[in-house]
Amino acid sequence: MADIGIIGAGSWGIALALTLHENGHKVTVWSVLADEVEMLRTEREHKEKLPGVKLPEDILFTTDIGLACRDKELIVLAVPSPYTRSTAHLMADYVKKEQNIVSVAKGIEEKTLATLSEIIKEEIPFATVSVLSGPSHAEEVGRRIPTTCVVGAKEKKTAEYIQDIFMNDYFRVYTSPDVLGIELGGSLKNVVALAAGMADGLGYGDNTKAALITRGISEISRLGMKMGGRLETFAGLTGIGDLIVTCASMHSRNRRAGILIGEGKTMQEAMDEVKMVVEGVYSAKAAKALGEKYDVSLPIIEQVNQVLFFDKPASEAVKDLMTRGRKAELAWEEE
Known about the structure:
This protein has 335 residues and is α/β, with parallel strands linked by helices. The protein folds into 2 domains: 3-177, Rossmann fold (3-Layer(aba) Sandwich); 180-322, N-(1-d-carboxylethyl)-l-norvaline Dehydrogenase, domain 2, CATH 1.10.1040. It has helices at 11-22, 34-43, 65-69, 84-91, 116-123, 138-141, 156-166, 179-201, 206-227, 231-234, 237-248, 253-262, 267-274, 279-293, 299-310, 314-322, and strands spanning 3-7, 26-30, 60-62, 74-77, 100-103, 128-133, 147-152, 171-176. It has an 8-stranded mixed β-sheet with strand order 3-2-1-4-5-6-7-8, sandwiched between helices. Helix 1 (11-22) links the parallel strand 1 (3-7) and strand 2. Helix 8 (179-201) packs across helix 15 (299-310) and helix 15 (299-310) runs antiparallel to helix 16. The longest helix is centred in the middle third of the chain and has 23 residues, at 179-201. The radius of gyration is 20 Å and the shape is globular. The model has no long low-confidence stretch (mean pLDDT 95).
């Protein structure tokens, strides 16, 4: 049994708390929101974000971040990506040297273009940081629906340790050394999922969705490989796998926000209606900036930025994508 702290009591943090508890671990969950902690303590259920999923009495909920971090064998950082840096900064005084921290959120910091694991290492340089990602909606994990993820770490022994802690008969975990590729796939797919949702909101069909998914993974792969990620990662669970589930499922907050935008709502109106952090909105500008930095063409991501931040109608964005200059999907061999 491991003593584990989970930092963040959103739907994903709660679903993972339940999974880890069922694996026999001692679990403490932290939230900055006193009302949220009180609800979880008394109701043993997150009424808003994970309704119907009951939580055992011996999962501890607290607003004391020190209690959730001190002397833990593993800390799971599950706050939304815009709050990763500030939360890691709060944690730093309470974690031990070489503390195992696994980041389970998805995003890229807009100002620095840093991945979440890079942010954590900046704030807690003495920690051992890994990532857990994949096609894994909390609403399904919380109900024990079979799910697969990947844990990425610099050292194999770290990845295998975390794999053993999380894995059970409904939550299967693979390992990978490609931390950067895993994080890029998990972050950039949210931007593409916004586009897929916009297409749904416009009333388009399966052909459009398939095009966005396949051309979207092409963009993600081109940029990711230019930055040092591996093609196998983008063809795997944290690339095409995560992209498919995020573009197709109504559990996806990014797709839901995109649908609302496609129907005519503004970005802010869509975020307010979804009532959860829409990660793709926060990663869109960073994704565009990375494309410019590495000189990689990202037409879908470019159009998403135009719709989100420059009030471009989604229908016009689709038209502009469809009428771009002629391209080859596979380059012709020179004669």
